[in-house]
Design brief:
By secondary structure, the chain is an alpha/beta fold. The protein has helices at 2-11, 16-31, 37-67, 95-102, 119-130, 143-148, 174-184, 215-218, 260-268; strands spanning 75-78, 108-112, 134-138, 154-157, 161-163, 168-171, 188-191, 197-198, 238-241, 248-251, 254-256. The chain has nine helices and eleven strands. Helix 4 (95-102) links the parallel strand 1 (75-78) and strand 2.
Amino acid sequence: FQKQKEYLASARPTAVNLFWALDRMERAALACKALPVAQVKEQLLLEAKQIKEEDAAVCRGIGENGLSLLCDGDGILTHCNAGQLATAKYGTALAPIHLGAQRGMRFHVYADETRPLLQGARLTVYELTSAGIETTLICDNMAASMMQSGRIDAVLVGCDRMAANGDAANKIGTLGVAILAKHFGIPFYVCLPASTVDLNCPDGGTIEIEQRRPEEITDLWYRERMAPRDVDVWNPAFDVTPHELITAIVTERGVLRAPFEPALQKLCTR
C-alpha cells in the first residue's frame, strides 16, 4: 500500500479520495495480517465491495441534496466528468441530473468538452445521452456565450480535493467557469463526498496540482502535431476555485453554504 501511495503522490497528487480508499484498504489488511494470505485476500475483497456499496449510497445522497437546488426544465452546465463512469453509481455532479431524470424531470445539459483530455465530450456526453437526457456538447470557450444567452440556470461540477476553507480543486477550466457564473449571476454548485474534504489543507494554495504531459495539448487528438516542436507547454490537470465563487457545496450529508470553514469542520466531525 505504501508503494501505491507513493505512486499516487507523484502521479495523481491532487485527488484525495484515492488516498482515502488506500488508507481504508490498508487498515483492513493490517486488521487481519495474522491470517493466511487467502483469507486476507477475501477480507480485502469484502472491504472493496463495501466501499463500492457505500460510494453508491453517498452519490445518491449527493444527488438527492443537489436535486433540491434544481427546477424542472433547468439548463445545466457541466465541466469534466463527475458521473457514473467516475464513481460506483450515480456520480457526484451528475447525480442530481440522473435522479431528476428518473423522476420525470427534464433538464437540458450543456457539457463543456473539457480540454485537453475531453472528458466532457468522451464521457459526460456519452453517459447522459445513453440515459436519454437532453445534452448539448460545447467547446470550453463557448461557456460564456452560453451563459450570456440565458440558457444556463445552474452550474454543477465535481471536486478532487476541497481545502478546509472551501477552496475547491477540480479539472482545469473549472475556475474560469466559476468566474463566468459569478459574473452572470448563475449559481455555481460543487458536488462532492465528505471524504473529498481535506482539513489538513487550510486553503487552495496548499493543494498540489498535477502537471501532465505536453503531448496532451500538442499531439493527442490530431493526425499531425499542431504546435512547433520547441514550444513551451504548461499543462496543469486541475485548477483551484476560491470559496468566494462557490454558491453552495453539495454533499451526501447536506448542502453547505458560506461561511464554509465551520460548516466543513462540522461535516467532517460527524
